[in-house]
Amino acid sequence: MSETYDFLFKFLVIGNAGTGKSCLLHQFIEKRFKDDSNHTIGVEFGSKIINVVNKYVKLQIWDTAGQERFRSVTRSYYRGAAGALLVYDITSRETYNALTNWLTDARMLASQNIVIILCGNKKDLDADREVTFLEASRFAQENELMFLETSALTGENVEEAFIQCARKILNKIESGELDPERMGSGIQYGDAALRQLRSPRRGQAESAQECGC
Amino acid sequence: METEKNGNITQVHQNNSTKAKGSVDSYGFEKPDGYESYEEMMTEYLAVLTRRSAKWSKLMKGKVKVENNLKVKRYVRKGVPNEHRAQIWMAASGAQAQMEKNPGYYQSLLGMDQQRDPKLEETVRTDMHRTFPDNVHFRNSSETCLQNVLYNVLLAYGCHNPSVGYCQGMNFIAGYLIIITKNEEKSFWLMDALIGRILPDYYTPAMLGLKTDQEVLGELVRVKVPAVWQAMAQHDVMWTLVVSRWFICLYIDVLPVETVLRIWDCLFYEGSKILFRVALTLIRHHQAELLQATSMPELCERFKLITQGAFTNDCHTFMQEIFKEPGSLSMGTVTKLRETCRGRILAEEVSVSP
Fold it and tell me: Of these four, A68, A69, A172, B251, which has the most CB atoms within 10 Å of its CB?
């Protein structure tokens, strides 16, 4: 394949049903709002290469079904995710109340180090708001999450959410807090990075990753 | 939505023989890309339908029940024409008998306003505008909008079977049943037949039946298409990633409408084993394409691609293939595999939970 990138990050989009997860993903990838689709069953994939702090990062995004009972199936998708968008709907307190459960799942099943950005979606529906910005931002702080209010309809903060999350992961790689070569980190080197970084030892690590074990 | 006393949905739509207008097919779905080749196929298929239709009319003359014999089985596998479909599904699945045994039951479920679970109502409502927005009959803007009918059927089913309630996927199934039967009450009883008797427990909160069947398919592929099984293992792809939709939606939105309906003909008459035949045929027929994948995402993508194209569009040939391509598949084998896989999953779940 001809795409070149420095890193590949596995991302999850999680949160209750009807919060707009698929619409966020669609807005991010296609730059338009799409609300005429069936809801997601199981998992859908999207990917996009973004440029963050002079690195090309390919995001491989797993968009999951939100209904509670699907969680027992979708949990198996979490393994090895580097980042996640945790989505609630600012017009639905119920979706906000469910955040703790989603968070527990993500940290337990993906990785303790998973970088999560909380997204209060449907920002455009301010008149129907049930969750204040302040309240959610406190929750984010307490749980060490980044936080943005987004609108998949207008596109506001959508790209920003993905980029902020990716940037934080890159920072953690640079500071040594995250080791891309650790199993299940959700991070892989891309071709471009390999060309710069490849040393005999790195070469070995990469081939070990390719076999998928 | 207006419903007549007998539950028939009024005002609703053209049957298969009238030409669909403009950009939608005869069921009201927007025509997908590549519809021209589909239409070409349909022109030929129409001759088949006409022939089958005459045979079915003769077979069913003066009868309400569908007999259980080899002739009928052969007829079902060759396809039930649309004008007989509702009747055959109702009779073959036992839905007709249940409906007759329980007159007024469906209406009474809709009448129990006070005891209704508000959470059930909310969950069903969340999916109303996300069920077939590509179908003119399910759009809000449509005069004949079937969203209320869909809502009623799902809500009634949730009250009828609280251990299932509502699970996403059931909305698509109910939608198809409504399109075919054009009748709320019949759609409800067909849901009851499918979820209560024909399918394993796909839709309960634990979704154990679904998890089991995903693994059963894996085991069948291991034996029947070992190269693909190996590729799945090599790229570390869990079966749930590629087939959960196939099973949960009974191939709706996975395969073309006409093909889904032909599969359902057999599903109602022969049972859930047919779902494996379809999956195995798709996988075996396209194994060369699947084996070209060099990564996990690519393999997942290819699993999507193999559901499209001429092979699945041509429903008549496809249905012949599913009884040839995967080879023999006895109910005994399926039952045994289901037991083994279910046991394995339960054991794993016990060891994982704290």
Answer: B251
Measure Cα distances from B166 to B121, B155, B271 in Å. Answer: 9, 8, 22
Q: Which of A19, A39, A209 is the mutation pick for testing B, counting most B CBs within 10 A?
A: A39
| A7 part of contact set with chain B, CB < 8 Å | no
Q: Is B169 on the interface with A (CB under 8 A)?
A: yes
CATH number given to B208-352: 1.10.472.80
- Architecture per CATH, domain B18-198, reads as Orthogonal Bundle (1.10)
Residues in A closer than 8 angstroms to B211, CB to CB, are: 72-73
What are the pLDDT tens digits along chain B (354 aa)?
A: 444 445 566 544 444 433 344 688 889 998 877 777 777 888 888 888 899 999 999 988 877 788 888 999 999 999 999 999 999 999 999 999 999 999 999 999 998 776 778 899 999 999 999 999 999 999 877 777 899 999 999 999 999 999 999 999 999 999 999 999 999 999 999 999 999 999 999 999 999 999 999 999 999 999 999 999 999 999 999 999 999 999 999 999 999 999 999 999 999 999 999 999 999 999 999 999 999 999 888 999 999 999 998 899 999 999 999 999 999 999 999 999 999 999 999 998 877 654
Degrees to nearest 5, angle at CA B347 with B346 and B353 = 85
Q: Does B168 touch chain A (CB under 8 A)?
A: yes
Q: Chain A: give the shortest CA distance to residue B10, in Å.
A: 25
How many Å apart are CA A109 and CA A121, to the nearest integer? Answer: 24
B111 touches chain A (CB under 8 A): no
Token pair 């399910």: residue: B138
Ranges of each domain in chain B: 18-198, 208-352
Backbone angles phi, psi at B121, to 5 degrees: -60, -45
CB atoms B301 and A45 under 8 Å = yes
> Whole-structure pTM over 0.80, yes or no?
yes
Task: Give residues with Cβ within 8 angstroms of B124, minimum separation 6.
Answer: B151, B154, B155, B158, B166, B171
Is the Cβ of B205 closer than 8 Å to some Cβ of chain A? yes
Interface of B with A in 219-238 (CB under 8 A): 234-236, 238
Q: Which of B132, B168, B236 sits opposite A41 (nearest CB)?
A: B168
Q: Which residues of A touch B249 (CB under 8 A)?
A: 41
Q: Please report residues of A whose CB lies closer than 8 A to that of B123.
A: 17, 67
ipTM of the complex: 0.86
Interface check A208 vs B, CB under 8 A? no
User: Residues B41, B45, B50, CA angle at the centre, nearest 5°?
Assistant: 160
Asked if B169 and B249 count as a contact pair (C-beta separation under 8 A), the reply is yes
Residues B188/B12, Cβ–Cβ less than 8 Å = no
